[in-house]
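Hi support team,

I submitted a single chain yesterday and got back a structure, but I'm not sure I'm reading the token output correctly. Could someone confirm the output below corresponds to the sequence I sent? I've pasted both exactly as they appear in my results page.

Thanks,
R.
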Amino acid sequence: MLEVGTGDPLICTVFISAETGSVIDVHKPKKNFKLQGIAQPGIWRGGEQLSKVKTPLDVLKERNRLKRLRLKAGPLAFLEDLNRERKQQRQRDSLLNILRQPPMSGHGTLIIGARCKDGIVIASDRKVARESEIEYTNKVFELDLGGPVLFAAEGLTGIRDDFFLLLNAEMRRRKGVDTLYEVKVIVEDIIANLTERYAERVRDPNPIGVLMGGLEDLTKGRATFYYIHAPGYGESCSFICTGHGGSYAHSLAKFLIDPNICPDLIADETAKRVAFVISWVAKDVDSTVGGVPQVTILRDNNVKTETLSDELTEAQQQAMVAKRQELARVLGLA
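Hi R., thanks for writing in. Yes, this is the structure output for that exact sequence:
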């Protein structure tokens, strides 16, 4: 409710909706009504004013008051406060721009890593989107860094390309490393820099992530892998499904290849099951995942990597189609 007057007789009482701001009703004063005062604009409940709406004049007065306080504190303090205000305003403007614009669509992928009894398996689908073009190519790369190190990156295609260019340049500059952990630290720094550079531009806080694996001492030792998160930190893991199709794959892969559930699986069997899971997701589950799965094996104390043959991969695709048709019967739901 807002009582409107000129300071003499009351003109009217206006009822305004707090939700829409539209006028609900207008009451004229009764005869011989004596004006007690003029209500301030704002929100009222009964006779109590809950909040007051500041007029432009009120805002200007408040700014001038703060300005006088800053000047008393000295010109340096005044400039610091002014710069702080401008920075906050730029941050607010940046946030509003982000909220106004939809995020750039990430290009899908599915990457699976699993530790097995005698080594590790790293696999991916082969579908790559570049603008409006779709192509099928390898996504798991082997680099010789004194020993074989496997890399599979997820995120926007251009940023993934930048990652491998920067990694090659950094390894040439360092002229070699001795352990897989050293490689992980290098990759963390590259990923952190790429995220800092592109996260705001592409409106995605996680524009890239990398799964990497190798032997602990590059030429010998236990095979292990790390996942490097977008902020630039890596963690060792024994099982992971990541990328756009990761959440679709996880519930199935967990019971087929997770070493905590299947501790006795060897690399060859794990590779077949990984190919099965990727084929399952690619077929009518996630349209951003596709192509013949690429599955790579690295065994403990062995510098030679192995790739699951196309024949075995296609056999798993065919098996997936057959098992999907029998799914209801297998689960006892038919």
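A quick pointer for reading it: The chain has three domains: 2-52, 63-100, 111-330. Let us know if anything else looks off.

Best,
Support desk
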